[in-house]
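Q: Fold this one first, please.
A: Sequence and structure below.
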Amino acid sequence: MKNTLITIILMTMCTTIQFAQPKEITVPQLWEEYRFYPKMVPGFNFMNDGKHYSVKENGEIVQYDLTSGEKTGVLYSAPDLNFSGYSFSTDESKIILEVNKEQIYRHSSRADFYIWNRQSEKLTAVSEAGKQRYATLDNKGEKIAFVRSNNLFYKEIGDKKDIQITTDGEHNKIINGATDWVYEEEFAMSKAFEWSPEGNRIAFLRFDESQVKEFTYTSYNSGLYPEYTTFKYPKAGEINSDVTVHIYDLSTNKTIKVKIKGESDDYIPRIKWANDNQLCITQINRHQNNLKLLLADSKSGKSTVMLKEQNDFFIDIHDNLTFLDNEDFIWTSDDDGYNHIYLYNKKGKKVRQLTKGEFDVTDFYGVDKKNKQIYFQAAAEGAMNRGIYRVTLEGGSMESLHNEEGVNNAQFSRTFEYYVNDYSRATAPPTYKVYETNKNSIVRTIEDNKRLQTELGDFNMGDFEFFEYLNSDSVILNGWMIKPADFDSTKSYPVFMYVYGGPGRQTVMNEWGGQNYMWFQMLAQKGYIIVSVDNRGTDARGEQFRKSTYMNLGKKETIDQIEVAKYFSKKPYIDSERIGIFGWSFGGYLSTACLAKGADVFKMAIAVAPVINWKWYDTIYTERFMRTPQENDSGYEDNSPINFAGLIRGKYLLVHGMADDNVHFQNAAEMASALISKNIPFDEAYYPNKNHGIYGGYTRSHLYNKMTEFILKNL
């Protein structure tokens, strides 16, 4: 009896100790169970009244009260119609439903579209002649326009006849009303037509891509022969599509071509109606440093310059152009060295600068015209943080709605009466709260992710900290570091660096890092110190920092990353012989460059979907930062890892999706050939039928298992 009691006590003690021990993170938890994935609140489809929003739930479109979260109605119900997306007419009397969606590229798709009339409760197909793209109602909800087979159509609601506006559309030759691949990817523009405010005209772009060279990738689908996808892809220095602007008049059934002065290879990345008689056209030269806003007369097609902007480097395209009721307009620009908001009059003269200071406006939420307020996001509290602010159209000091350390992202209702703030910190998953805008007072919490925050406490999480590094050019760089939970300064640890480093992005942000953050925590549990640094050329630190890599993309970025590695190698608690680096896309490009040019520092590198030669990437992105290879041969040759493959001495894992339409598999194949020609050993992982994101099924789990094993073996 006594022995039994002792046994029970010992078993109880062991069980208690077992449950008290911190848990370990695993790859299946990350990429199969998604155990650490926070509850997300998707983007809101706000209703016109400013207080309600709609969501798709189980084959229904359900309306909710934003302030209470209560369900207030069902706007559409058809469980048997498996629609993937929807949108409302301007007056919300009709709903466009997207069914049988078929993805084309990253942003573009085609589908069968239907119109649900909420008054008559009648469902009608937009067209029965084949799938459509970008079905869009006019402001009155009386007509709908769409693209099919590279031609533009419209029809009267209730009429079965499709009215064909263009007839010359042809695959890989002519596109009307939609964009080519490079516009879609680099200008974030897929739909290329716009209804006029009164619905009397349709403006559209025509792409003649007949002279653009083609690229083909292969898909393997267990068939006897593989399938091939061929599309137009202009690589740096090659011919682009010839793009022209046209306006179709519904009353006359005639189309006019807008008269635009400039070079034949100028870009037209945006069109927007200023009023029913004038179309605003954004025109930018191929170097992307000379931009014009043009106003085109909708009857004659004659255009005049409304605004000119020039830059010593390049100009980023955005969607912040906002016309006010008096035809003045809002514009954002790097004009004073930081990205700020400006008010211009209808003649294109600057009225006033509405935001000012040594910080970048990072997102433009819109204009509350009724109360004459502008809402925006800015990095006013440092590049790692984002706050929500407002300023009046009359100017003056901007008012902070949220500027606590961390990242705040706002979604405003149509009337700007309410907004939802998505807020997170580096070590805390996002919370979603509704605020009443005028008083800036909290209404309710939608999601606080307390369950996940509590669960994280059960795991052996490493210490996260931010730091600053002063590089050899006396420029301060922001970084973060994760140390193992049982870190001991008398021991020696390997360092694993994570990099993206490209334009318009940051890895060093005071926001929840998602699945990658938890993977890094898993590696910290295995005894690694994880480090990430935002090199020169990254976002939210003003124009000089952001554009300092111009014409030599990758040079300063690589120098910064190598310097950081050397800096850590001198720390007493770092094993200088065990420093590795990992990156994806631009980050894969930099990790490869670092392993080659920093062969004396890095023991290993992982490169996922990397650019290996800038000549193989597209015109718009590459030339924005490098100009053409013909103009800047040394910039291309000196900063493309393919030319330095022979310098690699460390362990190298090269990963690529074989159906990557963005950074082509060509990059990996050529890098492999270069390494083989130098008799340099390397590891490789190629994913058939996977694009730039390399996902689907067990793909991500397989990839992260592969990378984890490579790190454990080689670092």
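Q: Good. Now the second chain.
A: Here it is, same layout.
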Amino acid sequence: MFSIISFVGFTLLVAVIAWYATRKTDEKSADGYFLGGRSLTAGVIAGSLLLTNLSTEQIVGLNGSAYKDGLSVMAWETLAAIAMVVTAIFLLPRYLKGGLTTIPQFLADRFDTTTKTITSGLFLTGYVVVLLPVILYSGSVAISGMFNVPELLGVSETSALVICIWGIGLIGSVYAVFGGLKAVVVSDSINAIGLMIGGLLIPVFGLMAIGDGSVFNGMETLMSTNPERFDSTGNHGQEVPFATIFTGMMLVQLFYWGTNQQIIQRALGAKNLAEGQKGLLLASFLKILGPLILVLPGMIAYHYFDGGLASSDLAYPELVRAVLPDYLVGFFAAVLFGAILSSFNSVLNSSVTLFGIDIYKQHINKEATETTVVKYGKIFGICLALAAMFIAPMIANAGSLFNYLQEINGIYSIPILTIIVVGYVTKRVPAIAAKIGIFSGSILYIFSQFWLKGHFVDKALAAAKSSGVTDEAALKLVEADAYPHFLHVMAVLFIVNILIMLTIGKIMPRKEPFELEYTEQVSIVPYKYVKQVGITVCVIVISIYVYFAK
């Protein structure tokens, strides 16, 4: 009972503070609703960036990967810091100079309106089919498990899952659809503090559990028992081979932190360029600490359960249940619930923004006032949330959540990143090249990962079995060797897409070179130490890899 009371109390506290902080914001204007009135400061931006990214698909999924593969999966976290530095120095100044509300807006200026609409459609499709359902499903699994909802309500596990999905979805929709971006980022910032505290408690209690009450003894035991699992470069057959760091991994990070609407919208709402850059750099420093929350617990769980869990995605919830004192369960569940809501409402708010600005205003009602755009954006958000709630239970058999999410995202992430990069670094590549780049990138990736890969893997497994290989681990190695890793495929297709676009630009260039115009909506005077701080972040990340390389 105490756990439930503390859970409800902390959740209500966050809601009240978010309402109080946003009560005077003009939510009827486009800037007020979609960008928090372009008034966000560094601390709020950093907190919201982290909480938008950090949810149960990250906490459960990445710790599950660490349970399987060890320290090498930290690439998903540490390399994000470098991507944020690149965004702060190179991309954000261009975004704010252009006065963007959405990333596809730049594509309308650089190429044409059709390119913008196609890109917005890709974002929205990815959000509703993949990202929102995964967030709802993984969050519901965690909350249902922590409170034992089936027993509490006397229902089946499936029914409990559906109840939690709809509960999270409805509450998250209230924040995102009716509160606007400022309500989202304020609640994110409060939950960020709680999640950093609560998230660090899990490895602390976990290390104490395996170290006879001592964190340092626990760490020594963990490292001495399985030293090979602390190799930053990994080894054969892992989810994140070391070589992918130099190919598709950085491309995925650059897309996510530099061009993904749900993330970059926080920085687009900055009161000026300096605050936006400081927010990104602060978040990059904090991201370096991410493995303590997202990787270390999974490695502790491997030791604690002797690698005997039925599924790697059970590593984190089972460790929490095993080591966290009862009096902290309610607080931690509330913090985790906040992280779930954060990711859900952030994606939903970005979806509302994309639809309202890039589709409704552009194609449905060009004469619509800002109030009307916001109104119909909210209606679309409600429909999107309902669709995600219906789709979420179908994710149950998707396998490794985190890997599934990253691989599916490749359908739209690399094509979008390609046309944005080419759009900024060239001046005469025409709109037709962007359209071809989007469709060729998506179609080639789908063909590669969902047809060609299966063909090669099936042949390799059949050959291995016919030669007498029966061990499951050996078969997995054969499967891993049968086809290039999806991150390598992304890198190859990124280069192919760029070559296609540049070739078209050579054959049929724009008549007039593109010039980015300054809209003067906010000051674009940069943070004076942005390069020095950015270099420091990159050096720290590289040093971590060198230190743990074996």
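Q: Anything worth noting on the second one?
A: The CA atoms of residues 248 and 489 lie 7 Å apart.
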